[in-house]
Structure formats: structure tokens, C-alpha cells
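Model: Ready when you are.
Researcher: Fold this.
Model:
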Amino acid sequence: MLTRRGVLAAAAGSLLLSACGQPGQRPDDGTPGSAAPDRHELVVGASLELTGRGAAHGVLQRRALELTAEELNVSGFPVGNLRRTVRLEIRDNGSDPRLAARQATELARRDEVHALVGGTLAETSLAIVGVAQARQVPFLSLGFGDGIALPLAQRTFVYKLTPDAADVARRMAQLIESLRLRRVVLVAVDGPHGDAGVRAVRLALPAVDVGLARTVRLPVGGTGFTDAAERVVSAEPDGVIVWATAPDSGSAARALRRAGYRGTLVLDPGAVAEETLTRPNLAAVEGAYAIHPACLGGSMLTTSTTAERDRREFTLRYTQRFDRFTGFAPYASDALRLLTSAARMASSVDRGRLRAYLQTQVVEGIAGGYAFAPIRHGGMEPDSLGVYQVNQGAWTVWS
């Protein structure tokens, strides 16, 4: 079967030489933006939401980064004629876009990182985008939002690992059709992530002949959801889509149940974090559905047994270290693996060469599949998405 991933793999290969600069570049040449050659390191700067409203995802991504760096550093990885290790420079942006931008600037200028990772919130990712482009530092975004890697002409150093809203919405629409729901309400958080969801859902539902009774926006900050929930209930839907990130997803579910809604809940991937299945939320989210990448449970990686093994091993290491794996997409782990793969292929940690070889990556990662190309810098492949349901306080594969 001809897939988008296969087409992009061919495109990436044919355009690789033109994307890499002039012939004869010396591999691992220590050009500006590289760490001192004698350090033998790939230096990755991460601005993450370790506190604030994005911490439900930011803390999980830090864990994924550190676990993967430890694994890679056991024996290092070849880059040209050197064997390098990963050094992480992690900063807490406090879920503040302005702080995220300042941190990205400092990491690029003072710490001379080879690449940037981070921004689990769309707002912080978008703040880092400007810095990455100005400083010409490859940036792998972990945020939800369709405007992060587009327009491509202004995002040449930017790559997005999360699923595109249109792919998530189409999978939601298929689920809603199979559940025979005919009238739904969309509850979307204010901001770029919610905006992307609103656009995508409005396009996806008519394709399955499902009516969108109302769109209700949630205020940023996790409070004041009562009024929004009451507006949802007054529309008398038989299904509700909650398009938000944890912890807002769980808070919205609680508000809806308190307002008297007892129907079906469908959540986008941003809901899947440990916070959503904590005790205060369990009764509200029991039975809820979520669209999420393959790593959540029940492997969907049918094309790569190596990828399946890597995902299982990552889950095992994570569980051993942190006691439980309640389900999240380890995008940060994939970001680090994509960077080390690009460094191997480029025989260099030069920022420009890393960027060029990132856009040739067509791989199955821990979280799901990616097909980057010069004409496409994100996000996750749609066939990586599955349907899950909360069953007795745990995410389970829905069939």
C-alpha cells in the first residue's frame, strides 16, 4: 500500500543533498553553535513546564528525556569519527511563554546547545519558535497546536512531534459515528490548542453526518468551568468532546458531571496524563474515550518489531523508576532519538546539518510514527492514533 510515510521517505531521500549545504563540508567541523569538540557531546536544551498549568505534561516529558539520555549514554553513539554522549540542559519555564523565550535564547547563545526541545503547551512552543528560527537552532516541539510548524517557510528549523488536530478530529468523528451519537457539543480550551481543535472538529463532523450543537470555550487557568458546563448541558447533547490538556481535561469532566451531564465523553490526546486519572477525577472520567498515540497501550506499531520492543522496554524502565505508567506520549524520548539519528546521518552536530537530516526522518518512534520531509515538519502520522477508554481507572484499548 502506498502511504504518506512512504512517499515522504522517497521525497526526503531525493532532496537530502540539496538540503545539506555545499559538498565537501567537513563532518563534525565544530562550526558556531557546536559544543567544544573535545567535550564529545550532543548538547540539547529543554524548556519544559515543570511547574504551572503545563506541569501535568512537562514533568512526564522531563522523565522521558532523562531516561532516554541515560540509555544513549551507556555506550554513546557514533557521530563521524567520534563517539558522543548526550548532555541535557533542562530549564523550568513555569508555563510562562515569555520565560520560555528567554530560556531558549540563553540556551542558544550562552550554552551553545545544538538543538532545543520543549514547550508542552502551544503557547510556550510558539514562544520558542521565534528564537529557534532567529538563532537557526533545530527545535523539536512537544506542544499541541497546528500553527507550531507552519507556515513552513517561516519555520524551517521547527519540527512538531504531536498529532495534527485534523487527524485527531477525523479519528474522533469515526468513533462518534460508530457510537451512533448524532448531536455533540465541543468544549475547547481558550488558546492555540483549542483554536486548532475547533477548526478541525467543525470540518470532521459533517463528513460522518454528526451535528455540532454548540461550541463552548473553557477559560485558561482551570477555574470557572461551571458556567461552561451548564451551557453544555442546556444544549442536551448525547456526546461531548473535551479538547484541552491536563489538568483542564479532568476539571472539565468533573464540572460536566456536576452539572448533570451523564452522556459520552471523548477526549483529545492532551487529556492523557497522570493528572487525569487521579482520585478526584476518576468518577467523572470513567468510561470516557480518548484518541491517543500507540504508546498508551496495545501496540499499533504493525510495521516495526524493533519499535514495539523499544516501546515495551521504555515502558518497563519508566515503571521501574517511577512506579507506574498511567499513559502518556513520550514525545521527548522520540525527540532525543530523532536528534541522535540525525547526528549519526550527518556525521556532525552542526545545527544546520542536524536540521537538514531531521527532515529525512521517516521512523517509528516510542510514541508513534513520524514522516518528516523538506515539505513537511510535523506532526505524528495519523495511523499511529488509536482509541482508548477509561476502564476501572486505567486506559484500555477500545475495540
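Researcher: Now this one.
Model:
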Amino acid sequence: MKYLYVLLVLISSLAQAQVDTINTATLKLNLSAFKNSKRSYAVFFEDSTGKRLSSADIWDRTIRLSQTPSGQKIYEFDWKWFQKDSLLGHVTATGQLPSLAPLTHKADYAKRGKISTTFTGNNVAVSMPNRKTGQDTTFTVTLKQPAFEFPMDLEILPLLPIKKVGQQFAVAFYEPGTPAANYYRLTVTGKEDLPIGGNTNINCWLLNIDYGRPDAHATFWISDQSREVIKMREYFRGRYRYKVKLF
């Protein structure tokens, strides 16, 4: 009986350690939660003692579901990044449904310039014109895995098939303009009621992402009911960045 118990514990541990691979080809996301929506987030930094280091930027993020003239179902993503009274960045993107495979990505950042990206299968054509120097860098990337685009992490992570604490996922993301896509390890670390003011709580799953380096990681609070990110706390080089849903 003793050996049988040890064997059962070992089997249970191995089952819990299994990692579910998620990319645009696996079709494992919960698309019932991917709807027409607009969400706004306050984004700010704190040091390790909780002292606020910056005023809050505002992120307005919109998802619109539509279809092309040929009848292909697509999503349209729009992200406006406001800092004080200025538009610091504007990103638009499109992708296929139901896979969420990216089709296009265009971004205009006040400090980083423009980038235009077109996806054709696992091939990505990237154009990065520099407004200050007039130089135009164009190159092609071949992705080894069919990946989601990283700027949509707040919209994609809540769609993971989360059912219990201890689940682990490996999710493929690509940051437009970089040379490769990568898998990122995510673990469901808990479930708790998150206070949002006015004696109101939202029951949330806690999802931790490993960025592959010791000085960078983040936890997302994802509503169990609406499947949206309510809060994110990210550690990077000794300070914390927060993203908090306003409405």
C-alpha cells in the first residue's frame, strides 16, 4: 500500500506538471469571451516600497469583430496610449478568426517611431521607417511557431482554458519588429476575491507569466466571470508596473 500511495502521488505530480501548448494553430482558446469591447486601463509605476514613481498613463483598448469583403471573419484591435494630454502611441492590428493568427500590425510611437508589419503564415514582413533620420529598415522574419502578437496580451491571456490552480501553459507570442517568436510559461497560481472599491469584489484567477529572466515576471488578475484582465502587477529591475482596469 505504501508503494501504491507513492506511485499515485508521483502520477498526480506529473499530471499537474503537464504544460498545455497554446499557439494560433492549436485552437484551444475560449473564444466565447472574445467579444466587441472597449476597456481602459490606468498604467503606473511603483518602487519596491510601494511609493508611486509616475503619474498614470491611460490605455484605451478596443476589439471589434468583423469580416472582409470576401467573407473571412477577422478581429480589429485598436490601442491608444495617452500620457498626460498627449497621444504617446497608437497601435492598430487585424487577425483571423477563430485562430487569432495576426494579419497586420501598424504602430506609431511618439518616441520610437513607426512600424508596419504584415503576416503571411509564419512569414512576417517588417518595415520600420525612422522619422528622425529618414531611414527605412525593411526585413523578413520566419517564425518557428505560429504566434499571437504580444501587444494583445491583455486580450489573449484571459482566453486561456483556465479551470484550476496549478495549470501551466506555454503560449507563443511575437513582438512585431523582433527577430523571433517565443513561448512564455504561464502558471495559474491561485484564485481570490479582488477588492475594487465600494465593498465590491471580483473573483479572479491569478495567472503568473515567466519572461525567461530572473528580474522580470508578472501576475494577472483575470475575472472568472467576464474573462478580462482586471489588474496586472509586473516586476522589472527592482520596480513594479501596474495596469488597472478603469471601466
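Researcher: Key takeaway?
Model: Residues 2-245 form one domain.
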